[in-house]
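sorry for the late reply, my laptop died twice this morning and i had to redo everyting from scratch. anyway the thing you sent over, i finally got around to it. pasting the sequence first so we're on the same page, its 234 residues, then the predicted structure underneath. double check i copied it right bc i was rushing
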Amino acid sequence: MIELYYWPTPNGHKITLFLEETGLEYEIKPINIGTGDQFQPEFLKISPNNRIPAIIDHAPADGGEPVSVFESGAILLYLAEKAKKFLPNDIRQRNIVQEWLFWQVGGLGPMAGQNHHFSQYAPEKLPYAITRYVNETNRLYGVLNLHLQGKDFIAGDYSIADMACYPWVVPYKWQGQQLEDFPEIDRWFQQIEQRPATVTAYEKGKQISQSAQLTAEKRKVLFGQTAKTQSSQV
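ok and here's the structure:
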């Protein structure tokens, strides 16, 4: 049994995509990031960065005590090793998957995340910040679009690299992007969108999420945290 500490964000969706594809038994433990569940001491024990997702594997490969993992990229690698799926054994193909997984966690995710923040959530609209992150997201889309030429998926076959990138492309309109500008991404996107596991994963997210309205209190919880506020939760 995998316990998945989750909220339906792009990083959360990465893990449900994998779990639905592989059929590993799992239970979702909702962490409502709008009400501050991520800052509870019990969650801090398994996710010291106070961010979802995180997992606890109660049946690790070594047969020992449960293993907890935080950070979405690390979780995908851990689960792929456990399931022996979606991470090639061939050294060259495996390298491609890992490169693009880290490209997402170090580039596409953070840049698109800042894009979302300044264009959708910031109480003050700062043109420089919005332009900066919309343009950088556009550049990253261009990188992925070029790479996908002649390939069904990022590493040829569907892999954890695709599962990492796809949820960050889903809100492309929020990011000021149009998929028709990136025909290779558009083709790739539609293939993943239609997979049964993708449909199920996103449906589970809809069932868990509550109102999308961002209240002043939720804004404070999501965007007002410092080292001092984190230490006060311990």
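The mean pLDDT is 92.
thats about all i looked at so far, will dig more tmrw
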